[in-house]
Amino acid sequence: MRFQIFEFFLKTIYVFSNSSDKQNKNMKFDENWVKEWINFDIGRKDLLEQIERIGIERNRNKNIPQSKYFDNFIVGEIIDHYNVVRNKDTFKIFKVNIGEKTLKIVCDSPNCQLNMKVAVFRYSYEEEHGKKDRSNKFSEGYLCRYDQLFFLKNNKNIIEIPKHLEVGSNIGKYLAQYSHRVFNTDSISNRKDFSCILGICRDISAINNKKINLKRKTIEKNVHLNHKGRANFYIKDPEYCPIVFSKIIKGVHVYSKTPDWMKERLSWNDFSTVDTINNIVNYVTLEMGQHVSVYDCRSIKGNIEIRKSKGNENIIFQKKKLNLIQDTLVISDENSTMSIAGMIKNEKFEINQNTSEILLICAFFNNQSIHKDIEHYFSEFCLHRSHNKDPDAIFNTLERASELITKFCGGIQGDVTEIVFKKYLPKLKEIVLDVKKIHRMIGCVLSIDKISQILVNLGFHVFSNIGLNKIKIKIPFWRRDIFSDEDIIDEIIRIYGYDNLPKRINNIPNIQENHMDSLHFLKKLLVYRGYHEIITYSFIDEKIQNLLFPRQNYIKLPDPMSSHMSVMRTSLIPGMLSTIQYNQRRQNNKIKIFESGHVFFTKKEMDNKAKMDQRLMLSAAITSHQNDRSWLQNSRETDFFDIKGDLEIILRSIIIKNYDVVFKKSISSTFDKEQFAKIYLCGEFLGHIGMLHREIERRLEINNRVFIFEILINKLLNNKNLSLSEKYEEISKFPINHRDISMIFREEIPAHEILIECQKVSLSLQNGIVVFSHIFDMYRGDPIKSGYKSISIGFTIQSSKKTMQEHEISRIVDLFVERINTKFSSNLRKK
């Protein structure tokens, strides 16, 4: 009964504190931890607002109970112990002084010792003289474990209470220091620096214009020091590991007591508490974002090297031999491999209870060099260890670990061994920021001093004297999410405060939004024409890219999702063809599809540096297929003119002047040479249309012929003649007049140019006269001489104001003939 009461009480506390705690690797911390790094007085509510302001998504907080919840727990002292045998089982009984009396309590925890002060849960029914718990152990109380009160999930030891606390006093006074709330935050994928307390405090300090309690040692020059009392270090491949800091500490006590506050913070972040030194190393990783490796000096033989592995090396991992692949970056001594760089340590070099001399190593590894190692040797938390945040923080990380180890484990620190190859350090990205652009984007004026102060507080290197209203900024290594001046402006706004920006409506028209509305209109037109919209990845197979566009430059991804998604698309056509493939393999041959999306190119700037450019495209494709069978009409296959007609209808619906759009026959290795044309709008390239080349269809195993068009949306929607608004005109009640002419032209004159001239004449007419012109016949042969052709043009003439007389109609036809003669040196055909 008593044990059930105790167990129920503990479960109540545990549910209270962990109701929203999920097993994840998100960063968890409290306000006290933040205030250790920043000297400021701020309330919990304000701190929560600042955490959200810097861009960290906060989950429901983890509650640590207030001290009043522990009123049934008191301080006791172990004064004696003895063994009792019951039913062939041996139980250890401890006599515990709780002030007013002595209790007999059963406990099998290995850390119980004489004169140790403990947390005692005393049973409520004092009139009873003992009760058997579920293990058949005679006991008058219960000694509490860390995982029951302090929520250190993996620590089953009995809690050791400080000696100065009075026996019989309420333990709630001691637990008052743990009465707080833990912030449970979600990590941001592009902000790796937020996975440590240093990164979070850096941004919070910038908001409050405070400095972080951290002394930085900047790497300014090449160093290769190795004095007496230091480890003998050599880096054979400095391009993969340009910085190493190490230190030897002698006379340490590995299994000394880890402070409760450290174990608690490790527990919040799902770290198992082991020996004190490894607890400290894990804690420093949470603080600094940089891992420190610890080795037993007794196991190290000779010099230490950082190098690429050979083909026959192995380490002991989880009591098994792990064979290393060739060219794995490793740390080794003269005899064996000590660890895989930044990840897995050889268990032969692990510290143990007999260790008294340790080697600390903190290094900066090239992420690209160990990326394949991460994929091959994935272990718990190895990703966190391998992500380097800041080369300048390596020294501070080593010093912080050394400080905590000597404080809690004793020992004497040796000198620091420093090896730095500055040549191989990552180059800091530089961005020139126009201050006027900041003012234009945020709607208010900030001084250069204010802008510089914000950026410096965030860790950026600012150079303000480079020109009028210009600031040069060096991006710190840990901010790999910064690519452009817009990203810098976003940082300034974030720290300055969105609430401090002027609250006014932006009267500047949103061109991008208007373009999206226009694109939606075009897509609706395609849907009305029977097309289906598709969405495909922007990443495509490099082989498909080279097959379709062999001479085109493209962007290759350094870390693709798969080998079939290794390059950025330069056209929407690959996605079209993959969709056609997929459908044809499922017996769906009647395909009409379209897609809108961005494509990506590389282009060279004036300084010959490659720059990425993206363009918004619209593409559609149909396959040749028999139209639906019907007894009313004969079936026919779709062809080039079907998709051309669909495109013309779309363009005609949004462009007032039809003659602005011109199709010019051209040649492309992607398309059939007889059925391919480039599309021009007002003389500028708009896109292309054509039938896919037969060889490409064969290699992609596409059975039907494919017809495709692709146009540049921005070129189309930026056209001054664009009209998306619906216009209504009254239908004329006066008669329509038809007239036909035939004229002889040179063979090389395109028919569409003739129609363009006719449309220009029609638009120049006044008094409500409308003329529609079209070509209805073309003839070559006798009596037309060689090199010429006869084209017949029909005119539909109508007035909205009156019935036209014959002489008025003839005068209008003469205007057309005169304009065509002047432009093309043509003549009326007499017969």
TrEMBL record:
<dbReference type="InterPro" id="IPR005121">
    <property type="entry name" value="Fdx_antiC-bd"/>
</dbReference>
<keyword id="KW-0067">ATP-binding</keyword>
<dbReference type="GO" id="GO:0009328">
    <property type="term" value="C:phenylalanine-tRNA ligase complex"/>
</dbReference>
<dbReference type="GO" id="GO:0000287">
    <property type="term" value="F:magnesium ion binding"/>
</dbReference>
<dbReference type="InterPro" id="IPR045864">
    <property type="entry name" value="aa-tRNA-synth_II/BPL/LPL"/>
</dbReference>
<dbReference type="Pfam" id="PF03483">
    <property type="entry name" value="B3_4"/>
</dbReference>
<keyword id="KW-0460">Magnesium</keyword>
<dbReference type="GO" id="GO:0006432">
    <property type="term" value="P:phenylalanyl-tRNA aminoacylation"/>
</dbReference>
<dbReference type="InterPro" id="IPR020825">
    <property type="entry name" value="Phe-tRNA_synthase-like_B3/B4"/>
</dbReference>
<keyword id="KW-0436">Ligase</keyword>
<comment type="similarity">
    <text>Belongs to the phenylalanyl-tRNA synthetase beta subunit family. Type 1 subfamily.</text>
</comment>
<dbReference type="InterPro" id="IPR009061">
    <property type="entry name" value="DNA-bd_dom_put_sf"/>
</dbReference>
<keyword id="KW-0479">Metal-binding</keyword>
<feature type="binding site">
    <location>
        <position position="481"/>
    </location>
    <ligand>
        <name>Mg(2+)</name>
    </ligand>
</feature>
<dbReference type="Pfam" id="PF03484">
    <property type="entry name" value="B5"/>
</dbReference>
<keyword id="KW-0547">Nucleotide-binding</keyword>
<dbReference type="GO" id="GO:0005524">
    <property type="term" value="F:ATP binding"/>
</dbReference>
<dbReference type="InterPro" id="IPR005146">
    <property type="entry name" value="B3/B4_tRNA-bd"/>
</dbReference>
<keyword id="KW-0648">Protein biosynthesis</keyword>
<dbReference type="Pfam" id="PF17759">
    <property type="entry name" value="tRNA_synthFbeta"/>
</dbReference>
<protein>
    <recommendedName>
        <fullName>Phenylalanine--tRNA ligase beta subunit</fullName>
        <ecNumber>6.1.1.20</ecNumber>
    </recommendedName>
</protein>
<feature type="binding site">
    <location>
        <position position="487"/>
    </location>
    <ligand>
        <name>Mg(2+)</name>
    </ligand>
</feature>
<feature type="domain" description="B5">
    <location>
        <begin position="426"/>
        <end position="503"/>
    </location>
</feature>
<keyword id="KW-0963">Cytoplasm</keyword>
<dbReference type="InterPro" id="IPR012340">
    <property type="entry name" value="NA-bd_OB-fold"/>
</dbReference>
<dbReference type="InterPro" id="IPR005147">
    <property type="entry name" value="tRNA_synthase_B5-dom"/>
</dbReference>
<dbReference type="InterPro" id="IPR045060">
    <property type="entry name" value="Phe-tRNA-ligase_IIc_bsu"/>
</dbReference>
<dbReference type="Pfam" id="PF03147">
    <property type="entry name" value="FDX-ACB"/>
</dbReference>
<feature type="domain" description="FDX-ACB">
    <location>
        <begin position="732"/>
        <end position="829"/>
    </location>
</feature>
<dbReference type="InterPro" id="IPR004532">
    <property type="entry name" value="Phe-tRNA-ligase_IIc_bsu_bact"/>
</dbReference>
<keyword id="KW-0030">Aminoacyl-tRNA synthetase</keyword>
<feature type="binding site">
    <location>
        <position position="491"/>
    </location>
    <ligand>
        <name>Mg(2+)</name>
    </ligand>
</feature>
<dbReference type="InterPro" id="IPR036690">
    <property type="entry name" value="Fdx_antiC-bd_sf"/>
</dbReference>
<comment type="subunit">
    <text>Tetramer of two alpha and two beta subunits.</text>
</comment>
<dbReference type="GO" id="GO:0004826">
    <property type="term" value="F:phenylalanine-tRNA ligase activity"/>
</dbReference>
<dbReference type="GO" id="GO:0003723">
    <property type="term" value="F:RNA binding"/>
</dbReference>
<dbReference type="InterPro" id="IPR041616">
    <property type="entry name" value="PheRS_beta_core"/>
</dbReference>
